Amino acid sequence: QLEELIQSMSRSRDENVVGDIEASIRVAMQQAQITGSAEPLVATLKQADERLQRYKQPRMEGVRRAAARDLDRVKAVAVVDV
User: Fold this and answer.
1) Four-point Cα dihedral 74, 47, 17, 31, nearest 10
2) Of 1, 15, 24, 32, which residue has the fewest beta carbons closer than 10 angstroms?
3) What is the mean pLDDT of each run of 10 residues along the chain (82 residues)?
4) pTM for this entry
């Protein structure tokens, strides 16, 4: 039972981290649309990557890779597509 509880808490923490990152990205996307600049999104994706690096959970590596791909895509676009 203790092992189940520990795994449950770990999954809950993972979900909270992903939820926080997702919310930050949504806000940054809105800011990018309003300002016409990709900088808010670039900064948020960099912060997400740094946060996931500090979190050091192998389960989250897929999320980290996805954020890195998105960061590369955003940097490649000169103007935000509204």
Assistant:
1) -60
2) 1
3) 70 84 94 90 93 86 91 78 56
4) 0.76
Number of Cβ atoms within 10 Å of the Cβ of 25: 18
**Residue 9 CB-half CA count within 13 A:** 6
Provide DSSP, 14-71. Answer: HHHHHHHHHHHHHHHHHHHHHHS-SHHHHHHHHHHHHHHHHH--GGGHHHHHHHHHHH
Please give the Cα distance from 62 to 65 (Å, whole number). 5
Contacts of 64 (CB under 8 A, 6+ apart): 49, 52, 53
Please tell me whether residue 77 adopts helix, strand or coil conformation: coil
Residue 70: which of 34, 50, 41 has the closest Cα? Answer: 41
Q: CA–CA separation, 8 vs 41, rounded Å?
A: 31
